[in-house]
Write a structure and sequence with these properties.
The protein is mainly beta and about 130 residues long. It has one helix and eight strands. This is DUF35 domain-containing protein.
Length: about 130
Amino acid sequence: MYKLTHKQYYEALKKNKLLGLKCFTCGGYTTPPKLCCDNCGSTELEIAELSGRGEIKTYTVVRVAPEGLNAPYIVVLVELEEGPWLMGNVDNVNIDEACMELIAKKVTVAHKTVTGMNYTAGEGVTPLFIIE
């Protein structure tokens, strides 16, 4: 049984809270929610609130979006302070000026509500990273 459901995860994200799972076996963190620990595979997990702070490790500019989304936008991969890596969008960056200087920028998680997505049940929510 899932300790943290995706519904709980996204509801917390809508309040700019980042939930994850802390492993009793290895002490590692997993987010977004999964059935087992990303580090060791244990299912002995508890819900934990993560700091939401991290560092951009890589990014890409999406200029041709999937149906239902509007391009262009920036997707980043962030290493969180607690260890896991999380993908999301980045805010407060001019897309045409996105360059390698984004790498290693410190960020804080918020959220972005995406409406009008095709093939989903209702609105979508995604992590949105704000550069500090």
